Amino acid sequence: MAIHPSKLGRIAVAKQSAWGTKQTSFPSSTFAEVEVVMPDLAREALMTEAYRGMFHSHRIKAGSREGATMSLRMPLHGYSASTPTGDPTSSDQTVESVLLEYAMGAVLFNTATGNTVGAYSDPTLTLASAAASEVGTAIMAKTSSSETQHSIGFIKAQSGTDDKVLTLTSNLANAAIVGQPVYGSITHFISSNQPAQGLSVEYMGADSTSRIILFDGCVGSLKITISPREQPMLEAELHFADFELLGTGGNPGQYTFPQPQLPAAIGSNGTRMMINGVAVDSISAEFEVACEYVAVGNHSSSEGVSKYIISDRTVTLNVTTPASSINDSAVHAPGVELDFLQIDLNANVPGQAAALLIPKAIVMEQSTIGD
């Protein structure tokens, strides 16, 4: 049993170069500003209850270290503390971006920065160049002459050769201003892709001998909670096939988190929730991805597991809204389809915003109507 000062240390999350190869280098971009439930780090004990000549203990052999589980909870972060001057790349991924990629299966870095608004008419934005953006990704456009107002839109379709015409899933909060910049995004989307490499988590305690790396990990579940007046929060559960107690390299000392936290979900920060382009009241919203994972056995792997396969992904959004009236049009029945459910967060600040889009939502369950 090890005892160390509580909440002193550092957690870092990073992609590995390959399954079976733990990550040992963790730059500041991988530092996670998180609350952590540390796993019980244990090795399986194997025993055969064989006949013996007296009532003494059976022989025990050490088994695999596979199966450690870690829970993380953190506020959402932006990828840039200052206004971006270029499109985001893989080097701009935050910890939550990496977790979203592993949970949902895919990530795309949309190219829009450097473009300006050529024209805007709800819900169509024309770029003043032929640069293409990917359908389904998000862009941000300036909607006032000051630096304080922008708006996020998801690209539904695009056309044109000289000037790209982008049709958005919903209108921007205000009209985009001609000649003002457009920004790209890091977009995550649901996919059948498998993780190409495992995740590593470094735990560094306050003591110089306290350093643990859990590796060959996958994301089992991820939830983002968005409530008015509160910071959007992310929770994730990770599962690992192996870990190593390094014994040296702990005690990180003073350090900072380079990525900015997203502020409270309020309208003055550019937060809004819409269904098919119409703003709706919302008491709370919980976006959750649940992954079914299978450990792939391998005799030559150090702990008998070569990697994790994701056999299923399920995405749900639990929204609590005040009903405008007690009828079917306001209280949606199971099976009803809702188009373009979108939530924008801190949309006024480039590099420090986030947005969620479900292009086609199907009501799975109608909750009990309460006072």
SSE order, one letter for each helix or strand: EEEEEHEEEEEEEEEEEEEEEEE
Oligomer: single chain
Class per helix and strand makeup: mainly beta
Give Rg in angstroms.
Answer: 24 Å
- Count the strands? 22
Short description:
By secondary structure, this protein is mainly beta. The protein has one helix at about 95-105; strands at about 10-15, 35, 45, 60, 70-75, 105-110, 115-120, 125, 140, 150-160, 165-170, 180-185, 185-190, 200-205, 210-225, 235-245, 270-275, 280, 285-295, 305-320, 335-345, 355-360.
Protein architecture, described:
By secondary structure, the chain is mainly beta. The chain is built from one helix and 22 strands. It has one helix at residues 95-104; strands at residues 9-15, 35-37, 45-47, 60-62, 68-75, 105-109, 115-121, 124-127, 138-142, 150-159, 165-168, 181-183, 186-190, 199-205, 211-226, 233-245, 272-275, 278-279, 284-297, 305-320, 337-345, 354-362. The strands form five sheets. Strands 1, 2, 5, 14, 15, 16, 19 and 20 form an eight-stranded antiparallel beta sheet that branches. Strand 9 (138-142) and strand 10 (150-159) form a beta hairpin. The N and C termini lie far apart (50 Å).
